[in-house]
Amino acid sequence: DLPFDFESQLAARATLVERRLADRLDGTPRPGEIVLPPRILSAMRYALLGGGKRIRPFLLMEAAALFMPDADTEAAALDVAAALECIHTYSLVHDDLPAMDDDALRRGRPTLHIAYDEATAILAGDALLTLAFDMVTDPSTSLAPERRVALVSALSRAAGFGGMVGGQMIDLASENRHLSEEEIVTLQAMKTGALLRFACEAGAIVCGATPDDRERLSRFGEAIGLAFQLADDLLDLTADEAVMGKATGKDADRGKATLVSLHGAEWAHTQLRGLVDAAVELLEPFGDRAEPLRQAAGFIANRRN
Ligand code: GRG
């Protein structure tokens, strides 16, 4: 057996997702659609097809692969993975808007509202959010209706006011206000953790896994969601200030506390190792087949961007 090569597997999965998204936005109206206004189509393509690690789709497809899906189920997992990337991309587009983070660059290119305009960026975000649910429910996929409903339900909750949007609201409302450690963890679990958790849980849902396995993957997703955020906070430490243990970057600029600014980088590194270990332990029952997810946990904790 060749050793598992994480980077090339991530790239291969990303290519599949990008192809699926490019196909869906090829400009051909689907039943019920009359005309696709070129400007929104091009804005959606700009946002969706402009890079990104595609880590959420990877997690979803690798979680599904644990259950040895047949070709139809694997195709359905790809559709759900592409849908999830639509929601993630919409959140980045809206997060970059002047009313939120007011960022000019995303994934190394001008943000959507700079490349197009603000109204188009709002609409393209809205369209990406709704497209996600279209893709999950598309009758052309062979997925059993109960599984589709379970996916729509879990995705709505992960993305909505009890998940990502709610986390973003708490975040905005807490600028320059002291947050307790518990509040920071809750906010992060909602804002970034909910979609990562959904990614892992959805792999199980697509394959009709047992409630136990679904729960196990959900807990795995929760642990790597926390790791993702800690790694993000660590990335906000500049080389110089890391020595003094002082956080910079957008969050710190706005006077926002992170776990790293509360406890320092060394604590965060120890914590990260603990989270990866806990995540990996949850994969134990899946044996060797879980190697991609194991490596994904390490990748998320050690990521450089
Ligand atoms: C505006 C509804 C709404 C929600 C915004 C997730 C989120 C909530 C905002 C994203 C802003 C942000 C910088 C969050 C921190 C987590 C983070 C670094 C997200 C970027 O995700 P990656 O690293 O990005 O997976 P790529 O580009 O690889 O897809």
UniProtKB/TrEMBL annotation:
UniProt similarity note: Belongs to the FPP/GGPP synthase family.
Keywords: Isoprene biosynthesis, Magnesium, Metal-binding, Transferase
GO molecular function per UniProt: metal ion binding; prenyltransferase activity
One of the protein's GO biological processes: terpenoid biosynthetic process
Cofactor(s) of this protein: Mg(2+)
Any GO CC annotation of this UniProt entry: cytoplasm
Pfam families given in the database record: polyprenyl_synt
Alphabetized InterPro entries for the sequence: Isoprenoid_synthase_dom_sf, Polyprenyl_synt, Polyprenyl_synt_CS, Prenyl_diphosphate_synthase
Metal-binding listed as a keyword: yes
Keyword Signal applies: no
Name of this protein: Probable farnesyl diphosphate synthase
Protein species of origin: Georhizobium profundi
